[in-house]
């Protein structure tokens, strides 16, 4: 910021009440214009402020369209600051008026925006008395620069009373409406002027349909945007190493997507996004398919491609024929060794972002850190130890510093779960109570286990029902899918999540489910981490059939969590199975049905948790 902008920012924060929202130098709309300050208030509406650090002596000539100002480079012509602010204001207002839900319906004002909008110029280096003296010297100046649309230096001193400062701000508003904006209307305003904070609403339709919808300029009735905390965090992420510890459903992946789009606009070097499972990688690819210079891979696929690119002998897969995990680890080890010998160059990426970082082994971070360009030093790791479901349990005894991550002082914790209803989250928390309370580590250099808190959204109580056999369970699941469709659910809003493709009679669990769904005319998109199955495609209008492992990172309005009778119930696997169920339960945003055989230990534990 310029010094005057910094002073104004401090006064806005100090003197305004908590129901004001403020943005500095944030691009707005499709043209990505950058007003200095945007102020949004439920009653005062939208106020655009343009700040000029000019002294009165340096302003040589004032015209309705342009001003001549003496700078260190000589006299220069600038656009009239009020005209500049006005153009931003009208662009925003015109865009918002295209949304019927942001327009008035009363006949006299029909089609007009539901809130006032205004603009003003701020001169942090000009006193009001000096400006008035200039008015007296130059007749007609006040017509070009109306006094009530200007905030001067002495009107933003630290000693100015908050009420006086707010009154000066309100003087910019030429209109006042008696009805304040609702929280939903404020979110719609944010949705339109800041497209980057929108949550995906087009994942189920084709790119052609999306373009047609955009061209028609008909905004959806239901919109989803980042909440204010998430938006503030996403915008404030700077360079350097950063870690976000967030519970399931807290918006970690959404912040990663925002960060990717931002970095793609502001760096020329390639950006790398890594995760553990292929399903999450496919989802991220679908969300960022139009974002240039971003590579998205599972860490093992990325290592395999590096080995091929630099013509390094690939570890013999036959040696690991019965241990896929060991083969994947061998790929990472191979790349790490070649980095150390200089065969693979370090610092290849302007930024590296890691989603679901709790699934990464400590040594993998040593590899990731070396791939970040030391000039930008931009590394973001998203972490939730409660969702660590691959290999080791979440009790990983390592410090981030020991693997090269220098994020002390740049660690954020997201505790609020926005995804699940109170009823679904309560079941997950109670069921996995021992898991979530097992460790309370307050050292930010260590993996942190965060207890989730609810955002307070309510929905139906989860249904837990057991059956004498898997055959009868499948009958029920088919009926439930058809009933959800009859209730108005789209197929893409529904997921059928199962433990794994275990054998049952002459077939396997997944094959049985696919066959029965196809027979019932239910479109199904079967995904898993198996190389034999297609990767996750969120654009398909079909029910997603997915394992508990592969469901991590995804969410669906309605989830049928089935086949709990096939889960491992011995003591050695108990903790890991609880983690898996916790992940699967927290995929549901509104509706959850859990089924299994009556002999299942987990079915009984879930019923007790619900009681």
Automatic annotation (TrEMBL):
Is the keyword Iron-sulfur assigned to this protein? no
Q: Where are the transmembrane segments?
A: none
* Lineage top rank: taxon: Bacteria
- The chain positions of domain UvrD-like helicase C-terminal read 414-528, 539-598
* Any one GO molecular-function label of the UniProt entry: hydrolase activity
Matching entries from SUPFAM superfamilies are given as: P-loop containing nucleoside triphosphate hydrolases
Q: Which Pfam families match?
A: AAA_19, NERD, UvrD_C
| Name of protein | DNA helicase II
UniProt source species: Adonisia turfae CCMR0082
Keywords from the named record:
ATP-binding, Helicase, Hydrolase, Nucleotide-binding
Q: Does the keyword Signal apply?
A: no
Q: Which Gene3D superfamilies does this chain map to? A: P-loop containing nucleotide triphosphate hydrolases
GO biological process annotations for this chain's record? Answer: recombinational repair
Domain NERD positions: 3-96
């Amino acid at each position: 910021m310029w010094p005057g902008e910094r002073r104004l920012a401090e006064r806005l924060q100090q003197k305004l009440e908590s129901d004001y929202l403020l943005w500095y130098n944030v691009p707005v709309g499709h043209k990505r214009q950058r007003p200095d300050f945007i102020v949004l208030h439920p009653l005062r509406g939208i106020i655009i402020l343009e700040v000029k650090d000019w002294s009165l002596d340096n302003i040589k000539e004032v015209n309705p369209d342009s001003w001549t100002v003496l700078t260190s480079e000589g006299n220069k012509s600038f656009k009239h600051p009020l005209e500049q602010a006005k153009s931003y204001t009208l662009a925003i207002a015109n865009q918002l008026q295209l949304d019927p839900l942001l327009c008035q319906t009363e006949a006299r004002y029909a089609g007009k925006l539901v809130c006032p909008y205004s603009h003003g110029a701020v001169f942090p280096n000009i006193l009001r008395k000096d400006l008035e003296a200039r008015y007296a010297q130059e007749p007609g100046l006040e017509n070009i620069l109306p006094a009530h649309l200007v905030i001067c230096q002495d009107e933003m001193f630290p000693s100015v009373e908050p009420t006086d400062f707010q009154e000066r701000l309100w003087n910019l508003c030429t209109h006042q409406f008696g009805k304040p904006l609702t929280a939903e209307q404020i979110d719609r305003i944010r949705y339109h002027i800041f497209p980057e904070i929108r949550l995906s609403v087009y994942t189920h339709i084709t790119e052609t349909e999306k373009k047609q919808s955009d061209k028609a300029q008909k905004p959806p009735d239901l919109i989803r945007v980042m909440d204010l905390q998430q938006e503030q965090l996403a915008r404030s992420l700077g360079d350097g190493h950063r870690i976000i510890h967030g519970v399931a459903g807290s918006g970690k992946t959404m912040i990663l997507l925002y960060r990717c789009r931002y970095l793609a606009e502001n760096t020329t070097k390639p950006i790398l996004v890594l995760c553990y499972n292929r399903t999450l990688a496919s989802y991220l690819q679908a969300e960022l398919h139009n974002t240039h210079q971003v590579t998205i891979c599972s860490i093992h696929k990325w290592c395999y491609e590096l080995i091929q690119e630099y013509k390094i002998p690939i570890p013999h897969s036959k040696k690991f024929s019965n241990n896929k995990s060991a083969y994947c680890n061998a790929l990472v080890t191979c790349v790490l060794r070649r980095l150390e010998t200089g065969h693979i160059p370090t610092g290849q990426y302007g930024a590296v972002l890691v989603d679901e970082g709790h699934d990464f082994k400590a040594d993998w971070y040593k590899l990731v850190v070396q791939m970040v360009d030391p000039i930008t030093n931009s590394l973001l790791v998203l972490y939730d130890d409660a969702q660590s479901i691959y290999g080791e349990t979440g009790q990983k005894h390592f410090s981030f510093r020991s693997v090269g991550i220098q994020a002390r002082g740049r660690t954020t914790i997201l505790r609020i779960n926005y995804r699940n209803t109170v009823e679904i989250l309560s079941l997950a928390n109670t069921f996995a109570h021992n898991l979530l309370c097992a460790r309370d580590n307050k050292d930010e250099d260590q993996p942190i286990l965060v207890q989730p808190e609810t955002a307070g959204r309510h929905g139906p109580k989860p249904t837990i029902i057991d059956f004498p056999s898997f055959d009868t369970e499948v009958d029920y699941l088919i009926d439930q899918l058809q009933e959800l469709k009859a209730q108005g659910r789209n197929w893409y809003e529904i997921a059928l999540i199962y433990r794994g493709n275990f054998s049952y009679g002459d077939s396997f669990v997944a094959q049985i489910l696919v066959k029965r769904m196809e027979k019932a005319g239910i479109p199904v998109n079967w995904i898993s981490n198996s190389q034999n199955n297609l990767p996750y495609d969120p654009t398909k209008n079909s029910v997603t059939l997915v394992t508990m492992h592969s469901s991590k990172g995804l969410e669906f309005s309605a989830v049928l969590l089935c086949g709990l009778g096939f889960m491992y119930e011995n003591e050695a696997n108990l903790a890991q199975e609880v983690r898996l169920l916790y992940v699967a339960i927290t995929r549901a945003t509104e509706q959850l049905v859990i089924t299994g055989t009556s002999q299942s230990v987990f079915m009984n534990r879930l019923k007790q948790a619900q009681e």
